[in-house]
Each structure stands twice: as structure tokens, then as C-alpha cells.
Amino acid sequence: MDVMDRIQHQVDSAAVVLYMKGTPQFPQCGFSAKAAQTLTSTGVEFAYVNIFEDQEVFQSLPTFANWPTFPQIYFNSELVGGGDIIVEMAEMGTLKDEMKKASEKFDVK
């Protein structure tokens, strides 16, 4: 399986996927820490991929969705955006609902 297929499999494997530097417990950059904290605060389950554990994913993910920076957050296999976008969604009060909707759609698949 090539790297693009692996990334597609990853984003297809959970309703919400966070690509980040490090892990939610041990983030390795401030933006990843904020994104993980924001997603965690919703209480909705999400998956994560530590991009430092797979250099091919680290190198190829920006091309996969034409988004150059990390973290990257996907709902139901579609790019939502970076950490700033989910923080804004949380501030507007829509993040938790959107994550729940993504989870409900994922469970129906």
C-alpha cells in the first residue's frame, strides 16, 4: 500500500482524525497541543496520527489534501482544516455538535 492509500485508510478509519506532532498526551508543538486539547474538551472520541512516527505520512499529508501545515483535522474523511479552525468552531459552540454528527454518520456507514 503506498503512502496516499495509507493516509486514505487512516482518514476513513474513524469519524474524527487529528494528524499532529506528537500525541494528545505528549504533543510536540503548541499548535498540536491546542488542537488536541480543543478536541478532547468536547468529550467526543477521536483518533490521532503522530506524523513523526511515519516520515512518508509527514512528507505526503500536505499534498494529500492540499493543506500545507500541521495539525490537520478530518471529519468523515474530509479535511476540516487546521487547529485554528477547530478552535474557532469551539468558540462559536459548533465543534462538539459537528464532531457528534461526524460520529453518527460514521457509525451508519
TrEMBL record:
GO terms for molecular function: 2 iron, 2 sulfur cluster binding; disulfide oxidoreductase activity; metal ion binding. It comes from the Bacteria. Pfam families: Glutaredoxin. Residues 16-80 form the Glutaredoxin domain. [2Fe-2S] cluster binds at residue 29. PROSITE patterns: GLUTAREDOXIN_2. The keyword Iron applies. Keywords: 2Fe-2S, Iron, Iron-sulfur, Metal-binding, Redox-active center. InterPro entries: Glutaredoxin, GRX_PICOT-like, Monothiol_GRX, Monothiol_GRX-rel, Thioredoxin-like_sf. SUPFAM superfamilies: Thioredoxin-like (SSF52833). NCBIfam families: Grx4 family monothiol glutaredoxin. Belongs to the glutaredoxin family. Monothiol subfamily. This is Glutaredoxin. It comes from Vesicomyosocius okutanii subsp. Calyptogena okutanii (strain HA). The lineage of its organism: Bacteria, Pseudomonadati, Pseudomonadota, Gammaproteobacteria, Candidatus Pseudothioglobaceae.
